[in-house]
Amino acid sequence: MKKLSLKFALLGAVFIAASHAWAHSDMYFDSHASPHGGQMRMAGPYHLELVAGASDVTVYVTSHTNKEISTAGGEGKAVVKSESGETTIMLSEAGTNMLKGKGDFTLGPTSTVVIFVKLREQEAQGATFTPLKPMMPSDHHEHHEHHE
Q1: What radius of gyration do the chain's Cα atoms show?
Q2: Which residues contact 91 (CB under 8 A, 6 or more apart)?
Q3: Who contacts 63 (Cβ-Cβ below 8 Å, separation ≥6)?
Q4: What's the order of all strands across the beta sheet hosting 39-43?
Q5: Surface-to-core class of residue 14, CB atoms within 10 Å of its CB (0-12 exposed, 13-18 middle, 19+ buried)
Q6: CA–CA separation, 52 vs 120, rounded Å?
Q7: Tens-place pLDDT, residues 28-87
Q8: Hey, which of 28, 33, 92, 101 would disulfide with 24, CB 3.0 to 4.6 Å?
Q9: What residues have CB less than 8 Å from 80, skipping those under 6 apart?
Q10: Superfamily (CATH) of domain 24-133
């Protein structure tokens, strides 16, 4: 019986390790180019890509294998937190796999954007974004060389 329990424990450990292999960290996303030039984060079964303009927010929704997820009948909101305060922007479907909204906000180096997405017949999911991607070590070196 102990051997059987050990086999199930090992099998469970392998399953858990394999399931985490599908998850992407923020560091992984920040080190890879995103399809629309925004910033990507995991949100439950989705990848969310945030593209923030001067007064608009666009969120692209894809699967973990980067296939477009329909946003038909979906909705969401973006909570922009910056030094000047907090602004909530309602998001509505705007294309095959997009949610969009407009609002009055200013992004800065300390801003964060929290996105909540609710797709039809699915549980709500959320992700937190730092709007400005961290500078990668190689970028810092090139940036430093240009200013000397």
Answers
A1: 19
A2: 57, 59, 75, 76, 77, 78, 99, 100, 101, 115, 117
A3: 45, 46, 47, 69
A4: 39-43, 46-52, 56-63, 98-102, 85-95, 75-82, 112-118, 125-129
A5: exposed
A6: 24
A7: 455 556 667 888 888 999 999 999 888 899 999 999 888 999 999 999 999 999 888 999
A8: 28
A9: 52, 57, 86, 87, 88, 89, 103, 105, 107, 111, 112, 113
A10: Periplasmic metal-binding protein Tp34-type (2.60.40.2480)
Query: Which tokens belong to 26?
Result: 């923020």
pLDDT, tens only, 7-26: 444 334 334 333 344 455 55
Q: Find all residues with CB under 8 Å of 88, minimum gap 6, and list them.
A: 77, 78, 79, 80, 103
Alpha carbon distance 69, 120 (integer Å)? 11
- Using alpha carbons, list the distances in angstroms from residue 90 to 23, 32, 101: 28, 28, 6
Contact 75, 61 (CB under 8 A): no
User: What are the residue boundaries of the structural domains of the chain, listed by start?
Assistant: 24-133
Angle at 54 between CA 38 and CA 145, to 5 degrees: 60
Q: How far apart are the first and last CA of the chain?
A: 69
Q: What are phi and psi of 143, to 5 degrees?
A: -60, -45
